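PROTEIN DESIGN WORKSHEET
SECTION A - STRUCTURE
LENGTH: 156
TOKENS:
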């Protein structure tokens, strides 16, 4: 199984790239994490925000691999503990399909992206910077995998 982190944003600071890579590289081939960056829609004082979200949405939906399970990262989604995430990860791996995690831009995900998702997951009730979400996601997926495998990285 491959997990495709489809995220709006590019030209991230070095600390984001390093943080993301630190955990993504620890994951084994059976649970590989791949980042797919989507260029943000144009935003300015005169630009139409709805148009930017629609553009991002089209690119995100096009980037979803065929037959992948889609999980939208959204503040309205379910909050999971680390153990619950490990259970979800185990189910995803058991299904034998790739997984696409959708992370929207500064204005969130479109209704189309949320509708396409089979699950909606909220990382926190806090509003998180989108750059931080990449690092947090890679670490939490690695942590969930370590729980599944009984690896000592996660301590209760």
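SECTION B - SEQUENCE
RESIDUE ASSIGNMENT:
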């Amino acid at each position: 199984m491959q997990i495709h982190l489809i995220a709006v944003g590019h030209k991230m600071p070095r600390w984001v790239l390093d943080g993301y890579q630190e955990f993504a590289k620890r994951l084994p081939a059976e649970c590989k994490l791949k980042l797919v960056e989507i260029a943000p829609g144009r935003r300015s004082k005169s630009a139409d925000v709805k148009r930017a979200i629609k553009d991002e949405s089209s690119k995100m939906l096009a980037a979803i691999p065929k037959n992948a399970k889609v999980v939208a990262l959204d503040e309205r989604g379910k909050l999971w503990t680390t153990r619950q995430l490990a259970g979800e990860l185990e189910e995803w791996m058991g299904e034998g399909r790739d997984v696409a995690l959708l992370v929207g831009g500064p204005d969130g995900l479109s209704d189309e992206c949320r509708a396409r998702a089979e699950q909606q997951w909220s990382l926190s009730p806090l509003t998180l910077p989108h750059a931080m979400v990449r690092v947090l996601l890679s670490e939490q997926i690695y942590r969930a995998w370590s729980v599944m495998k009984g690896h000592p990285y996660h301590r209760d």
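SECTION C - NOTES
The helical segments are 14-24, 49-63, 82-95, 111-116, 130-149.
The longest helix spans residues 130-149.
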